[in-house]
TrEMBL record:
Family annotation (PROSITE patterns): CYTOCHROME_P450
Cofactor(s), names only, from the UniProt record: heme
PANTHER family hit by this protein: CYTOCHROME P450 (PTHR24305), CYTOCHROME P450 12A4, MITOCHONDRIAL-RELATED (PTHR24305:SF166)
UniProt keyword annotation of Heme present: yes
Family according to the record: Belongs to the cytochrome P450 family.
Keywords: Heme, Iron, Metal-binding, Monooxygenase, Oxidoreductase
Protein name: Cytochrome P450
Lineage, top ranks: Bacteria, Pseudomonadati, Pseudomonadota, Alphaproteobacteria, Hyphomicrobiales
Gene3D superfamilies assigned: Cytochrome P450
Highest taxon above the source species: Bacteria
InterPro entries membership: Cyt_P450, Cyt_P450_CS, Cyt_P450_E_grp-I, Cyt_P450_sf, Cytochrome_P450_monoxygenase
Amino acid sequence: MNIASVRRPIIPPTPPRAPDNLSFFGRLAVIRQNMIATWGQRAYEEEIIQGRFFLHKSFILNRPDAIRHVLLSNYENYTRTPAGIRMLRPVLGEGLLLAEGHAWTFQRRTLSPAFTPRATANLVPHMTAVLDETIAKLDARTNEPVDLREIMQRMTLEIAGRTMFSFGMDRHGPTLRNFVMEYGERLGRAYFLDMVLPVSWPTPMDRARARFRTRWTEFVAMLIAERRAAGKKDGAPPRDLFDLMDEARDPDTGKGFSDAQLVDEVATMILAGHETTATALFWALYLLALDPDTQEEVASETRGEHLDSIADIDRQKFTRAVIDETMRLYPPAFLIARAARDKDNVAGAAVSKGDIIMIAPWLLHRHEKLWDQPNAFIPKRFMSKEPPDRFAYLPFGAGPRVCIGAPFAQAESVLALARLIGAFRVELADRNPVIPHGVVTTQPDRSPLFSITRR
């Protein structure tokens, strides 16, 4: 018997679970610091938990059939919550993630051709070029502690810049990272008034977010202007995502994106693409540093592979399982919150207009009725002949609003992890636990230092 199948799997550290009787205001105080620390043991055991949110009921759903109903069967009845809109609109505007109704339909079908497997395959050379550069830079640092979280952020930002615009982010990367950090540290957190007031009633933080949005959209518009100035050869095939998005047309009307719409779509793709992928890769490297045996299996799978095409990426079955398991334990989007437009019935629970539905991938992916050893790192669970229920595993959401960039993100993550672990043995330079914090995404509470050695 393979020893990897009988050894005890690692259980990475997590925040303490809240008392089940934590008061509303006690929970509110924790939310701004770490949303995933607000849930108690019940949330990991029960299928549906009903509570109150001011004048409305709230529901946490851990039943796949109930989640299917909300995200697929009756998805048009559920919209983003006021707090969710406040958190995302300043950075994403009216882009695909926030659009509703006809605007969402237009954007989704107009953008779809830019994210087909064929389009993703054409962008792989941009990814491999950045990975070659990253590995070369890491080669020079094998005798010193390195911050792999920062390196993953820089690397995925560079990939985002090249796949979007065909130019590097040396000049603009620091500014973009500053925008991301500024927003996440203060403006991207939910405050009391954000959660209780209608979106039409501006809160003090909304005014600060509006000032941020002005600066942010000017920056993205500048990037677009620079890319347009570079031009494109007549008759040449699209060379990057910007070409695909700029040339995209609604298949029914022939209408394309306005300049303002294009700013929001570009902002959405850059932010949603680089930040979530960087976070997933950090957690994958952290888990493999905690689990050297699994790390060696990844290295063994990559040995002798060129890893420069979609076909090469698709052959990395175990590495893909490591990425899948990483996103189960650390889902980038740890919470999906929706407000009911009208009354409904969800798995026997009566939902009224305005009630809040919470689907938390953090809870769902660690639920004790849905997973064997839910808190353990076991990548081979994703190589089973019986995959998990589609609505029990939601790293990219589900239903019509599933993340349009999922194939791109999966290809980038598998390629990057395979190349990095194929090149280096990764170890933690300190053994202090790294605790996940749910703020905008599932972030580490600190950036540990790693040591790397050439294989």
